[in-house]
Amino acid sequence: MYLSAKPVRISNGGLTVHVPSHGSQFERSVRPYARRDDEHMMEPVTRVEILHGDVANLPPCNFRHSIPAVIFSTAVTGNAFHEFSEIIIPLFLTCRHLRSQLKFVTTDRNASWIQKYSGILNRLSDYEALNLDDGSVHCFPGAVVGLRYHDILALNTSDVPAGYSIREFRQFLRESYDVKIKNVHEIEKLQKPILILISRNHTRKFLNEDAVVELAQELGFQVVRAGTDAMSNLELLAKMLSSCNVLAGVHGAGLTNEIFLPDGAVVFQVVPLGLDWPSTHYFNIPATAMDLQYLEYKIEPKESSLSEAYRLDDPVIVDPGSVLRSGGTKQRGLCISMAKM
Questions:
Q1: 3-class SS at 166?
Q2: Which strand (E) or helix (H) includes residue 242?
Q3: Could you tell me the residue range of the domain that residue 285 belongs to?
Q4: Quick one: which of 25, 60, 235, 278 is 20 to 30 A from 296 by CA?
Q5: pLDDT digit string (tens) for 40-75?
């Protein structure tokens, strides 16, 4: 992350930031994505060159702005977990204290991502995200290149300029999507508690999903199956989840939507073989910080479809973590068959 309190000139589609300097000239580069410690995630992120040079040699301004720019990449998109953990929450950490007086400049521009999260972006900035691909030079009184990042779906209050926590972020989301319900006590008047079941079509899916739904209904739940289509419209999804008592699903990006649940709601995660660590750190620990109740079910080897393809003494079954650590690919077809939920 790079911060300039000096005036800057941004050119080359947002990929070059010129900073006036009366001293020695130097340059550095920043890839404006939050996970700077993960080389795999950073690979598709284009570098932004920051050039400190003599004022006389700076490119002339085509457009002048009175508020600072925040430059970030939208190269790593398409997965809700990474989008929230590594772009949306870092944007909140970086920008919320500026009180919407900033302009976003996106690199590796993804117009569909910007549209998908327009409700959040419009809440963080009073201005549309700039597209500088026309070759023009934009001048700003300051700039931030890259985003703050604390941890997985996390905000560390002591490290935020205005002291924001995950609670303030969840309230910010409610305001962004005009969600009124804040806790489960406000939905107790419903005749039946609502359970939203994340329905997956490929890997890590319930092979007996109909039986799971039937059992939940017998237990008194009104069950809503949420597939890919339901997860794509954030405005509708936020309102749907705000009236939900339980969000249930197998470990995967869909559980990131726990972030929209009302306080006191339950997150029920099914943990596949070998995924204890990510299940705990991606969704268990964040759920607790969000004032949610967390439950999990760790499947037994015989409940996994892997038991049909491998012997029960195969490393894929008895020590799947070792297979993952060695770069094995045997778990890619992991599915789950559960008798009860």
A1: helix
A2: helix 234-242
A3: 184-326
A4: 235
A5: 999 999 999 999 988 778 899 999 999 999 999 999
Could you tell me which of 33, 177, 13, 161 has the C-alpha nearest to residue 95?
A: 161
Give the span between the Cα atoms of 34 and 37, in whole angstroms.
9
Burial pattern 50-71, b for ≥16 Cβ within 10 A else e, equals bbbeeeeebeebeeebebbbbb
- For residue range 323-339, what is the model confidence (pLDDT) as tens digits? 666 665 444 444 555 44
Kindly state the percentage of the chain with pLDDT values over 90: 68
Residues 77 and 121 grouped into a single domain? yes
Do 265 and 118 share a domain, yes or no?
no
Residue 70, both tokens: 């925040």
Final residue of a structural domain among 130, 159, 177? 177
Q: Are 216 and 197 in contact (CB under 8 A)?
A: yes
Alpha-carbon distance of 20 to 7, in angstroms, equals 7
Which candidate, 152, 144, 154, places its Cα nearest to that of 32?
A: 144
136 plus 256 within the same structural domain? no
- Cα separation, 282 vs 261, whole angstroms: 16
> What pTM did the predictor assign?
0.90
Pair 112, 207 in one domain? no
Helix (H, G, I), strand (E, B) or coil at 124: helix
Residue that has been written with the tokens 């499947």 in this structure: 299
Question: Residue 213 has which token pair?
Answer: 């739904």
